[in-house]
Amino acid sequence: MSPMNDLTAEPLRRYPLRASSLAALDAMEIVTPTPIQARTIPLLLAGKDVIGEAYTGSGKTLAFSLPLVEQIDESEKTIQALVLCPTRELAQQVGGVIEQLTTGTKTRSTVVFGGRAIGPQQDAIRAGAQIVVGTPGRVLDHMSRKSMKLDRVRFLVLDEADKMLDQGFGPDVERILARTPKDRQTALFSATTPDWVMSVSKKYLKSPEVIQIEPEDGDAPDIEHVVYETWGGGKFEVLCKLLDEEVEGSTLVFGRTKRGVNSLYRKLSKLNYKVDELQGDLNQQQRDRILKRFRDEKIPVLVATNVAARGLDVLHIGRVINYDVPESHELFTHRVGRTGRMGRQGRAITLLAAEDLAKFHEIERGIGRKLPRLTADGKIVQPPARRNGRRAGGLGHRVRAKA
Predict the structure, then answer these.
(1) DSSP 273
(2) Which of 129, 133, 353, 366 could form a disulfide with 110 if both were Cys (CB 3.0 to 4.6 A apart)?
């Protein structure tokens, strides 16, 4: 699998697209494809199976959504395309892009996931939805209720394929794929594709074209990294210092568990920080309300579990703080990819306790670089690598609410 960056992207109008798709792209003000789009859209339009790997924020959703929409037969009122996503938030984001692409057409799409009443989703499917975007659990629920038949699916996408094919989702994904035609077209997209994903994908894809886009200097997210060593158990104090400083944009703080995120949210709230939480124990209505407030910049700080590491596309996130170290370098990549999106600058800060050292060394090996380190009081331990003439620096972001 070799990187493919040596391309000259032609305008999307050069592709054999429907007039409705071109009009939708105009409305979205999209003219030139990103590298992952330029490499994968022609292949998918030609009916090829594809494995696409590209950095977070590179335009993967449009890369598969545009060819998917192009292949829908509007006269056929059955499910012809299925997109599986690991989280509700990502499913909603993908569904939103597809809805934009099908505006003014007879193509109908719907998004299905748990936490919401199943009745309206069943009604949308029965009304002739041709594209379904959903999470595996809810798709299986529909299948068991016989409200969703997949025997006419021609195009299937696994978004965030590394997550979709791990031990948690793998069995559900296999059950779903077993109910789709063997001659379907299949695409896998992710920011990271571990070796085991490549081997497992052989069961699902037919001679796939493998496209790997590594960011060049002009494409790479502009993210400055810094790691604070908190050997004395002072993580919370360092976090508060960070939150007391002025910084542009919002802050996303990652914790490891639902209970830990809730505890951190409560501690910060008691200190009058303007903060909210996003974790799996909240119902869908609560999650939607919190995300809307965060997107509308009414909440400057959001504390979240890994549910926010995939599919949370909020351009004003100025920095990500890893309060708890993630379990893998792939998850680290997804987390920090929530900032520095679409050409904006971002910062990624990791708070490192002594017990995190072994895991963090694995993360650094996985991402192929040593990250700059500071002591809890800001003294340099490991100098930051120079990047675009700048060094990673200080603390950021005042978010304390007025009393």
Answers:
(1) B
(2) 129
